[in-house]
């Protein structure tokens, strides 16, 4: 039994001594030259980032409830969580090579020799009882097993970043879809008012047509304008139902199971300021960038595994236990048996299979480096474009508001002039239609502005808290 105890301690010691190196290059983050500041920003080197629950900046309880439902029930998020569980299970499998493999077995055999062979012509029978434990351990001299485990760990992190990226994308989609629903409410209200104005114009033109004051062309144009606006109402109602169905799917519900009370986009709160951080901070803030780097780390480890496969492997084996012809004497020092061994295995010739596999993985690693660098500059571009959109749409909303104010004044003036007989009622209705069209442009500009703000939150990484 003393020898078995010694083997128990010798194997890890030998493994520790011989497992001190790993072939292949260590991972180094690719060099990225990040801008020192955002060119489209008017702020001085801000270092703050958006808060985790960025959607609360819009101060809309219905939006908050929708986002919470999406985060809780969305099936894409649930699928991403399942992928994390799969990656963790695979990591357990990949890490098993770092430990010895130990197996135990016991058995009994009864042997009877032929009477024609046995001495004296007598039948001889015997029993053999065994109880054995076997252990084997591959010395990780070249780091193959460690790098296999490292690659699996990096893929766990990659799956977590993927989950965080999906959460970010879906919260942004939920906010955008919700704003689109609100703008349809406003557009529907305006369309009904435009319809009333067009119907009033058509009534006047019909009366004039009957008295011969206008031609049939004028009447046909008025009817066409009215029909066009009425068709717009039907199209908006269709879009509202489809948007609600899209919101239901986002929230993990069946189409038609979600209702949102009508609201106005013009009542939506515009965040006063969004912290932008520094460009270099995107290395830590964006889930997609961190996912790309985790895949890069995994590929580096894969490359080192393929490199280690080119070298010989050494496996230590040990076997110990008991064997006896009598069950009563099985557990007895005299029945002890053991064996120790070491195997060296090396590939002599397999064509170019191993070297070719190494070259393939090495090329894949280089591809992922380029993907990572592209992801970085794309992220910088996303933020710059979002900042430009926010700035320009701020300007556009100011101008569209001025247009509404002027159209409102024109409508008010036409009403006063009509009362004094200076213009006919058609002019009043036309100025009203112009006012409503300007309001329609205003709310669409507000929608684009809110979508741009949402896009900026997303481009900055939203509520992502940084590396795992």
TrEMBL record:
Keywords: Coiled coil, Lipoprotein, Membrane, Palmitate, Transmembrane, Transmembrane beta strand. Residues 219-246 form a coiled coil. It is found in: Cell membrane. It is a lipid-anchor. The keyword Coiled coil applies. Its main location: membrane. This is Outer membrane protein. It comes from Candidatus Brocadia sinica JPN1.
């Amino acid at each position: 039994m003393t020898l078995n105890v010694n083997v128990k301690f010798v194997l890890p010691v030998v493994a520790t001594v011989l497992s001190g190196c790993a072939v292949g290059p260590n991972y180094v983050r690719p060099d990225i030259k990040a801008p020192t500041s955002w060119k489209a920003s008017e702020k001085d080197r801000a270092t703050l980032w958006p808060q985790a629950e960025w959607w609360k900046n819009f101060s809309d309880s219905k939006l908050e409830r929708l986002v919470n439902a999406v985060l809780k029930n969305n099936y894409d998020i649930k699928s991403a969580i399942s992928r994390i569980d799969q990656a963790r299970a695979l990591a357990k499998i990949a890490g098993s090579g770092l430990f010895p493999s130990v197996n135990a077995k016991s058995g009994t055999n009864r042997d009877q020799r032929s009477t024609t062979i046995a001495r004296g012509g007598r039948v001889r029978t015997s029993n053999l009882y065994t109880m054995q434990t076997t252990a084997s351990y591959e010395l990780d001299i070249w780091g193959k097993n460690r790098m296999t485990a490292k690659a699996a760990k990096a893929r766990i992190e990659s799956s977590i970043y993927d989950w965080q990226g999906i959460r970010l994308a879906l919260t942004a989609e939920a906010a955008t879809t919700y704003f689109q629903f609100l703008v349809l409410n406003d557009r529907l209200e305006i369309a009904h008012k435009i319809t009333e104005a067009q119907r009033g114009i058509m009534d006047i033109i019909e009366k004039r047509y009957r008295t011969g004051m206008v031609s049939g062309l004028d009447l046909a144009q008025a009817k066409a304008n009215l029909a066009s606006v009425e068709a717009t109402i039907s199209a908006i109602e269709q879009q509202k139902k489809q948007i609600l169905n899209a919101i239901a799917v986002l929230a993990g519900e069946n189409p038609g199971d979600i209702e949102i009370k009508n609201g106005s986009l013009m009542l939506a709160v515009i965040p006063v300021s969004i912290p932008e951080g520094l460009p270099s901070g995107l290395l830590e803030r964006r889930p997609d960038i961190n996912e790309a780097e985790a895949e890069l780390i995994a590929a580096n480890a894969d490359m080192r595994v393929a490199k280690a496969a080119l070298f010989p492997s050494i496996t230590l084996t040990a076997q110990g236990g008991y064997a006896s012809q009598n069950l009563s004497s099985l557990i007895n020092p005299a029945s002890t048996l053991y064996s120790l061994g070491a195997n060296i295995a090396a590939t002599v010739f397999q064509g170019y299979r191993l070297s070719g596999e190494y070259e393939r993985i090495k090329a894949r690693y280089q591809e992922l480096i380029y993907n990572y660098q592209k992801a970085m500059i794309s992220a910088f571009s996303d933020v710059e474009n979002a900042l430009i959109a926010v700035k320009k749409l701020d300007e556009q909303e100011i101008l569209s508001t001025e247009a509404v104010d002027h159209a409102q004044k024109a409508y008010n003036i036409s009403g006063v002039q009509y009362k004094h007989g200076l213009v006919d009622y058609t002019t009043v209705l036309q100025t009203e239609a112009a006012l409503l069209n300007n309001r329609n442009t205003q709310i669409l500009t507000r929608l684009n502005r809110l979508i741009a703000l949402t896009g900026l939150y997303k481009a900055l990484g939203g509520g992502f808290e940084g590396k795992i």
